[in-house]
Amino acid sequence: MQLKNLLQAFVSLFYPKLCVTCGEPLVAGENYFCLECFLKLPKTNYHLIPDNRTTDRFAGKIPVAKGASYLYYSKGGLSQKLIAEIKYRDNRNLGEWMGVLLAKDWLPGGFFH
Fold it and tell me: Is residue 71 within 8 Å of residue 79, measured between CB atoms?
């Protein structure tokens, strides 16, 4: 197992994993985002607010029991870069990782009950 870690460290010298939003090299333990960008993710916390902007957008159009958005979107911002990475670069692993992150954030608040 140590040989595998050593080989990965050697390969990362020439082909480092980069932050999907700022392009900086990631350090051990970071996935997809550097710590700085991860802490800057513009989370809405709408899952804690029953009548939020997301549910308001559907009001009168279709019946919705609950609605929420995980991140605020701004043109040129972190959310746009994430969407582009998942959608246009077909980074399904990032999409799955973000889904797990969302679930970990939202499960304790009971949003999915």
Answer: yes
Overall domain count for the chain: 2
**Residue 21's domain spans which residues?**
1-40
Please indicate, yes or no, whether residues 23 and 47 belong to a single structural domain of this protein: no
Q: What is the pTM of this model?
A: 0.78
- Is the separation of the CB atoms in 86 and 94 below 8 Å? yes
- Alpha-carbon gap, residue 61 to 68, rounded angstroms: 16
Cα distance between residue 79 and residue 23, in whole Å:
15
pLDDT tens digit string along 20-76? 999 999 988 899 999 999 999 999 999 999 889 998 888 889 988 888 999 999 999
